[in-house]
Amino acid sequence: xxxxxxxxxxxxxxxxxDPATLGWMQGFPPPNNRLIRFSDDRCLEFPESRWSLSHIRxxxxxxxxxxxxSRVVSLAVPPLSQQQAIETIRFKDLSDQELSWxxxxxxxxxxxxxxxxxxxLVYERYxxxxxxxxxxxSFSLTKSYLATLAATLIHHGTLNDGWLVTHLIPELxxxxxxxxxVRQLLDMEVGVDYSEDxxxxxxxVWQYAWATGMRPKPNPYTGPTGIRALLPTLKKHGDHGxxxxxxxxxxxxxCWMIERLTGQSTAPFLSEQxxxxxxxxxxxxxxxxxxxxxVAGAGxxxxxxxxxxxxxxxxxxxxxxxxxxxPEAVVEDLMRGxxxxxxxxxxxxxxxxxxxHNQWWxxxxxxxxxxxxxxxxxxxxxxxxxxxxIARLASHPIATSAANDPITQPLIAAVSRFLCS
Amino acid sequence: xxxxxxxxxxxxxxxxxDPATLGWMQGFPPPNNRLIRFSDDRCLEFPESRWSLSHIRxxxxxxxxxxxxSRVVSLAVPPLSQQQAIETIRFKDLSDQELSWxxxxxxxxxxxxxxxxxxxLVYERYxxxxxxxxxxxSFSLTKSYLATLAATLIHHGTLNDGWLVTHLIPELxxxxxxxxxVRQLLDMEVGVDYSEDxxxxxxxVWQYAWATGMRPKPNPYTGPTGIRALLPTLKKHGDHGxxxxxxxxxxxxxCWMIERLTGQSTAPFLSEQxxxxxxxxxxxxxxxxxxxxxVAGAGxxxxxxxxxxxxxxxxxxxxxxxxxxxPEAVVEDLMRGxxxxxxxxxxxxxxxxxxxHNQWWxxxxxxxxxxxxxxxxxxxxxxxxxxxxIARLASHPIATSAANDPITQPLIAAVSRFLCS
Lengths: 421, 421
What we know:
- The structure is a homodimer.
- Chain A is α+β, with helices and mostly antiparallel strands.
- Chain A has two domains: 3-60, no CATH class; 107-420, Beta-lactamase (3-Layer(aba) Sandwich).
- Chain A has helices at residues 19-22, 49-52, 80-86, 101-107, 141-155, 182-186, 204-212, 227-230, 249-262, 266-275, 304-315, 328-336, 405-420; strands spanning 3-6, 9-12, 62-65, 90-92, 98-100, 110-117, 120-126, 136-137, 284-287, 300-302, 319-320, 323-324, 355-357, 360-362, 370-374, 378-383, 388-394.
- In chain A, the strands form five sheets. In chain A, strands 7-6-17-16-15-14-13 form a seven-stranded antiparallel β-sheet, sandwiched between helices. Chain A has a four-stranded antiparallel β-sheet with strand order 3-9-10-8. Chain A has a two-stranded antiparallel ribbon with strand order 1-2.
- In chain A, α5 (141-155) packs across α9.
- Chains A and B meet through β3 and α9 of A and β3 and α9 of B.
């Protein structure tokens, strides 16, 4: 067993925490101390998470984001020579330590990584419990999926980003969202009293976890059941529109607006707008709360290749299989990003020069890249000007991206240089 | 609103209990009194069941029985002329009342029915909440799927039907299963103290529902969690091998044996052995208990067309797309059926001359038909000598088939005569 330390805590390394090595959920039945049960409230904790993030549907209620069986578009396996060439990459992490490509993947607890360059897969690899046909929880990449569709509705004039939330959701009068606009939701500039601190068990993110059903409720439990019972209880804190302030419930409000506007619930909407036209190979899986509502801020599981397909769609300015699926203007607007002066207050020292726009993290780098980011290492890096997509699913022990960015950021930079120079 | 009475209780009829008519789960959010939540313990009760049986995955933990995206075999839509011809059928139910085809479907709360004759779909129709792409809970048809694969393992010599259960599952020493054989499991001839009475809330079937997680546990709950914790507690009652006695846990024991024998859990086994080679269009969905174990006695949801594909496979003596997927001998053995002298004691007056074999109900009729049967009206009728398959998914208010057989049996006979004479 090998461990590494972060902030004074020791964690098993990737090889030692592989579910097969540890024997999690192996055998008929697995031994009691290797059984992962939702009710034990450990399934989203490391190292159980190394199995669970590839098996969410077996732990909680979900709904299918169906692909269209008659429209699957296949992706060719990456050529071995390209795969091997990428594996020769060495790079320095942000603490100036030199790492091999392999170490870069292992140190970030990568479960799967795929790289697409100039429209072709050039790298694809799976670790731990993930398999090509298993959807893996993407956490906040869910937000980027939904907000991209919201931006499309805005482009078509169906949704107006100047609308107040209460124009469609009068239930939110009296809450933080009463005087917030669609634009403020999309760019996460709502002043709401809600702490996103995953490490603090008393923070509001736990209220969210209980209301959504992603964690077993304490007994007794007197809080809200269901996301849409939670949202009206959230109070205003500070002003809207002044600064980037990342709050997951904003996406839940956006999703509620989209459902009411389109008359369609989120899973079939995603299926119709993305899964079917993208030719996804496998159904996505969306966690639903105890009232059947999609967990839009964190609930989507997707296979590595289907995630890559979404990245490729945006990388090609909204075109897939010769069809314009997302308007080109939506992608161009993403590349331009949000107000960079609104970003620094949010204290992301590892993301200099970034902005946040339409629930994507925008790099403002020469490749025009924007990123979907989810806790525990989920990442979708899309660089249209470099024709490069990097999709990574992971089960890093620490929620915040700040724990893996010191390796992830230079790893992405290294493979970008390798492929594009 | 129209109602009909059964055994002194009034039930809304099919049109009046359509989830869209009643407003179940309609709107964002639905009104509180039209919300279906697992925790309310109503989701498998009528009329909520009319929505829930097509939405099981949104209510509980499940696992995917994946189709192979590269091997989907399409089925042509039935010709309108054939569909219309079948709809002219009129027949008499067992109380000698004349019914139209349409009334036959409505009075049995049909959610979907497909008929395949000589290898072609000749009828396909959906009602209520079911759609062509929604898997519908098949209840005990799950047993027929699994036992067909068990019979295949026996044919190949991997499993021996003379083995004692404890040969593979020593954990069941001291239980009813200690001295039971595989053959006795397959033909439901195990003497076990377990009441299958769905109408009696004190019967053992409720212990099963709580252990499997298909119903919310009472609070406090001190019973077993997980199927494989329940099975060792079941005690012997009477002898094995003397008479047909339908008990769902027998299938759970069989499934446990198959998993331990093959080293594969049930969902990927079903996927590899059936979903992929059959060219199923959609993933099946299998309820898992709180320890991740497939509910083999009742947990499979399947789309109407994929269920029809399974029937067609057996109807064609195990061949699909020109490949022998199930051995011909397994189908022939099914047609020969079990010991008809062991059946009558079980008191199924509506099934004269039947036997039960390999978890199929065998008619011994001239068409060589055998039936999968699930509570609330699930049915898969396979008649190889008539080249006829009838697949029906339903949400009848009453669990027992005895409530719908007075219409279902003559309806099947009528369409058989219509197509085959």
